[in-house]
Amino acid sequence: MNFYCLYLFGLLACFADDSEYIELLQRAINENMKPADIKKAIKKWKADHHRA
Asked: How far apart are CA 52 and CA 50, in angstroms?
């Protein structure tokens, strides 16, 4: 597993709703999406209350 995949896991875990997490993760990896494109693809945002 490379840094990009770990970054995707973290990005989606923080912001994507559980109902679309797997689909977005697969799409991001298959299409080699950039972080900005991944954020735009998230339809159901969840708040990240654990950031410092």
From this structure: 6
CB–CB of 34/8 below 8 Å? no
CB 8 within 8 A of CB 21: no
Domain ranges of the chain: 3-41
3-state secondary structure of 52: coil
Q: Evaluate whether 43 touches 23 at the Cβ level (below 8 Å).
A: no
Interval 10-34: pLDDT, tens:
777 778 888 888 898 889 889 988 8
Burial class from Cβ neighbours inside 10 Å (0-12, 13-18, 19+) for residue 27 reads: middle
